[in-house]
Amino acid sequence: MKKILLATTALVGFAGAASAEVTISGSAEMGIAGGNRGAVTQFWTQIDATFSMSGTTDGGLTFGADIDLDESDGRNTTIFPTIGASPAFAGLTQGGETIFISGSFGKITMGDTDGALDWAAQEIYMGSAIADDHSSHAGAYAFTGLDGTAGGQIARYEYSFGSFAAAVSAEIDTSIANNDVFGVGVKYSGDFGGTAVGFGLGYQDNSVRSVYAVSANATMTNGIAINVGYADLDAQAVGANDTWAGIGVGYTTGALLVQANYGTYDLLGGGTVDGWGLVANYDLGGGAVVMAGYGTGDVAGGDEIGATYGSDESWSVGLGLSF
Amino acid sequence: MKKILLATTALVGFAGAASAEVTISGSAEMGIAGGNRGAVTQFWTQIDATFSMSGTTDGGLTFGADIDLDESDGRNTTIFPTIGASPAFAGLTQGGETIFISGSFGKITMGDTDGALDWAAQEIYMGSAIADDHSSHAGAYAFTGLDGTAGGQIARYEYSFGSFAAAVSAEIDTSIANNDVFGVGVKYSGDFGGTAVGFGLGYQDNSVRSVYAVSANATMTNGIAINVGYADLDAQAVGANDTWAGIGVGYTTGALLVQANYGTYDLLGGGTVDGWGLVANYDLGGGAVVMAGYGTGDVAGGDEIGATYGSDESWSVGLGLSF
Amino acid sequence: MKKILLATTALVGFAGAASAEVTISGSAEMGIAGGNRGAVTQFWTQIDATFSMSGTTDGGLTFGADIDLDESDGRNTTIFPTIGASPAFAGLTQGGETIFISGSFGKITMGDTDGALDWAAQEIYMGSAIADDHSSHAGAYAFTGLDGTAGGQIARYEYSFGSFAAAVSAEIDTSIANNDVFGVGVKYSGDFGGTAVGFGLGYQDNSVRSVYAVSANATMTNGIAINVGYADLDAQAVGANDTWAGIGVGYTTGALLVQANYGTYDLLGGGTVDGWGLVANYDLGGGAVVMAGYGTGDVAGGDEIGATYGSDESWSVGLGLSF
Hints:
The structure is a homotrimer of 323-residue chains. By secondary structure, the first copy, chain A, is mainly beta. Helices cover 3% and strands 54% of the residues of chain A. Chain A is built from 2 helices and 18 strands. A 16-stranded antiparallel beta barrel of chain A has the order 3-4-5-6-7-8-9-10-11-12-13-14-15-16-17-18. In chain A, a hairpin with a 2-residue loop joins strand 14 and strand 15 (256-267). Chain A is globular and about 50 Å long. Chains in contact: A-B, A-C, B-C. At the A-B interface, strand 1, strand 2, strand 3, strand 4 and strand 18 of A face strand 2, strand 3, strand 4, strand 5 and strand 6 of B. Strand 2 (6-7) of chain A pairs antiparallel with strand 1 of chain C, so a sheet runs across the interface.
C-alpha cells in the first residue's frame, strides 16, 4: 500500500496548522560513464533521498535539519572506527547532517555545513553531469578551503544586510595538535541593468595554513554567464597545490544549458596541474534532465613535478532525475 | 510530532499538481522460526521501508526510481570494500537501487533489476512465509539465471505488444575476463475461458555459460493454480547444478491461500538435489496476513554426489504486515 | 522538488480511508558538550528520523512497526559479523526494529522492545539534555534489567485492566548456554486528589541471575515531581553492581522544567559507585527546546573497590528539536 506525499504548493491551506514537519525529496541518475574511469564503458546508476525537517518556535524563530539517505550507511569510518556505524548519528562527529536555527539575529548552522570560505565563494561550475566529469577533473576546485581538516563538524553564523551577507565559522580540532579552523566570508549579489552579478571573498586559518578565496560571476540577459575564481591554498610542502585559478563560461537558452570550464593549480616549488570540463544539460521538464559531461586534465606521476603531465579524460551521459 | 502520509486514492485532486513525488511504503514480519535453522526455535522480526519516486516529463515520458531502507546500510562490501558504505549510492555499482524511464518506445530499467531471463520467467511460488521456508529449500530456484555474475548492475529494455512482452538485457563485466552477460526474454499472459494463462521464455549468455529457462502457469476460476518451470543452467563443473525443474500447485479461496511446490536439480556428472515446500496465508485485511511456511530438502555433503543426500527442514509462522 | 507531510490533525477527514500508513518524524540536536568527555569542549550535532507504520485488520486488530534511520546503518556488528549489514533487516536478529499487534486480547510486541522489567519500572529522569549528561553519569541506571543478554530480540505480551497493566516477556538465547531471559512486570498509574501517582514492579531471570526492580513516582499539582527507583541486580562477581537506588526531584512551571537526580550502586564485596545529575529544559514551542544537562559521578579504577572513587563530570547545552 503505497502512500503519496503531496506537493507543498497544493496544500498550504491544510499544512498551516503544522508546527514542524518532515519532507522527503529524491534524486536518481541512470546512464553510461566512460573514459579512463575503468577498462570499459560502464553503466551508471545512483540514487538518494533527503529528509528535510523544519519548524517554527512560538517566538517566530525558524529551525530545521536535514540528512540524506546515503549518509545513513556506515561510511566515514575513519572518523568512526566502529564497523558500520554512521557518524551522522553520534553527537561528537558529523556524517552529513546539518542543523540550523535562524531569526532576526541571523542564522546558525551546525554539522556537515560549509565553512565561511566555501559559503562565501561561488563555484565556477554550472549544470550537472551524472558522473560529475566536468567538475572533477585534475584542474577542478570546489572552494573546500580547510573544511574537514579537523573532523568536519562545523558551526557557522551568517547575517544578511541588503545585497551583502557575511559569515564566520569554526571547526574544533580535538587532537593534540589543536589546529582549530576559523573562517570568515563575505558575499554580494546584485543586478546591474539585468546582469546578475555576484562576488565572494573568504578566509580560513588553522594555525598551520592560511587560505583565502575570491569568486566573481555575472549572468547576462542574453544567457551568457561568466564565473571566475581564485584561491591561495598556502601549500606547506613542495609539490602541493599552492594556488588555484579557474574560469567557467556558460550559456542558457530555453531548456538547454552548456558550459565550459578551465582550472589550473600552481604547485609549491614549480609546476602546474590543470584541466578543463564541458557540460550540457537539456531539461525535459517534470524533474528529468538529459546530462552529458566531459572532463580532462593532467595526471600526476611520481617524477613529473615541473614537467608535462600525462592526460586523463572521463565522460558520462544519461538522465538526472529529481523527485 | 508525527506526520501522516496520505493514501493515494484519497488525494487525487490535490496531488494532481505534483510533477514528481516520493512515496514510502513499509513491511514488517513477526513470528517464530524453527527447524534446522538453529539449535532452538527463535523469534523472527524483520522490517523494511521502500522509497518509490516517480515523475513525468513535459513530453509525457514517465520516470521513476526506488530503493529500500535495508539497502542503505553497508552490506555488499565484497563489491564495495570501503567498510560500511552501501554500493547503492555509488554510480558504478548497484546496491539495490532501480531507475527507469518509459514511454511509447518501451521501458528502460537500470540498476538492481532482473535480467531478461528472470523478467520473462515466472516463479513457481505463491504466497509468503516470514522466513521464506517454502521457497528457499534445497530444491528451490528463482530464475536468477546469470544475474549478478558481473556485479549485478543491469540495464534492461522491454516492450509490450498486446498479450506479449519482450525484453533484452545487459550486465557489463569490468574484470579482465570481460564476461558480459546478455539476455533476451519473451512472455505472454492471456485468458482462456476464465483460466488465466502465462508463459515465459528467457535466455542468457556470458561467453562461459548459456542458460535458458521456461515457465508456464494457469490459474483456474475454481481457485486452483498450477505453475511449472524448467531451466538449463549449463553447469561447468562436475557436481554443479545443471538443470532444474519445478512445479507448484496452489489453491485460493476467500482470504485463504495454500500452495505446495517441488523442485529438483540434476547435477553434472549425475545425482540430484531436490526439496519441497508448503505455504499457507490467511489475509486478515488492512495489510496483515497470517503466514505459515515449511520447506525441506536434501543437504549436500562432501562425498554424496550421486548418492542419497541427508534431509533438512525449516518452518516459520507469524504475521506479515504491509503498510 | 520537496514534498510535505501533513500534520495528522489537519487531515483526519482525508486519511480516514487509509487502512495502513507510514509516517515519518524527526529529531535533531545542536550545541556544545564538555567536561571530561574529551580534551576540549566540542560541537554536538545529532539527527534521526523514525519510520512509524500502522494499520488495522478488517476484524479491528491494530498493528504497527517502527524503525529509526540511525538503525539502518551497519552498527551492531557483534551480532551480525557481516561488515556493514544492519541486524534490523534480518529475521533472527534485531537492530532496533519493533513490531506489534494489539486488540481486546492485549498487545504483543516483538523486536528491540523492553522486557517486562523495563516496561514496568519507570525511569527516575525527567527532561532531556543533548548529550544525556544528567542520565548517564556513573550512578545512573535505566532499568535495563537483563534485556540484551541474549541478543536483544524480545517478545512481550501486555494487558491493561483499569489503572493496572501487566506484562510478560521472553528473550531466547541461541547459544549453548541456553540462558533464555523471562520477565514479568506490573504497573499502576492513578490520581490522588490531583497528584498523579505511579508504581512499577518488574522481575527477570535467565537461569544465572534473578533481577528485580521497583519504581514509584508522584507529580503534584504545584509542579513538583518525585521519582524513586530500586533494583536488585544479583551480581555474580566481586566488584560488580549488586543493587541500585536512585531518586529524582523535578519541578515544572510553564515552559521550564528542572530536575536533579542521584543514584548509587552497591558493589558485591563492598564499595559503592554513585553520581548525580542536573537538567534544565525551556520549551520554545513548535518542537524546539533549550536543553542544559550536567552529570558527575565516581570513576572506577583498577584497585579502588571499597575506597573513594575519583570524580568525573560532563555537561552539554544546546537545542533539542522535534519534527
